[in-house]
């Protein structure tokens, strides 16, 4: 069983996906594998919570990389997410 990772508080800036959107992500990762790694800081997930959950659900091994600590952690997470999410502000 893979190591369980907690979610860093900064990841909560953005909501988790649920329902059919999460089911679609899980199905895609199961079929095509994980294409974008999951970001960690202090051994907690800062970006990729949905991909991580989908990997666990589909039995696909998650891949990780660590944030380099340069700049603001919040700015880093916002930059990764803002333009790829269908969010209203």
Structure characteristics:
89 residues, alpha/beta, 4-stranded mixed sheet, 4 strands, globular
What do these coordinates show?
The protein is an alpha/beta fold and 89 residues long. The chain contains 3 helices and 4 strands. The protein has helices spanning 19-32, 49-58, 73-81, and strands at 6-7, 38-41, 44-47, 64-66. A 4-stranded mixed sheet has the order 1-3-2-4. The longest helix has 14 residues, at 19-32.
Query: Roughly how much helix do the residues carry, as a percent range?
Result: 25-40%
Give the strand tally: 4
Number of helices: 3
In whole angstroms, how far apart are the ends?
Answer: 38 Å
Q: In oligomeric terms, what are we looking at?
A: single chain
What is the C-alpha radius of gyration, as a whole number of Å?
13 Å
Shape: globular
Output the strand order for the largest sheet.
1-3-2-4
Low-pLDDT parts are: none
- Largest sheet at a glance? 4 strands, mixed
Order of helices and strands: EHEEHEH
How much beta, percentage-wise? 5-15%
- Overall mean pLDDT stands at 90
Short characterization:
By secondary structure, the chain is an alpha/beta fold. The protein contains three helices and four strands.
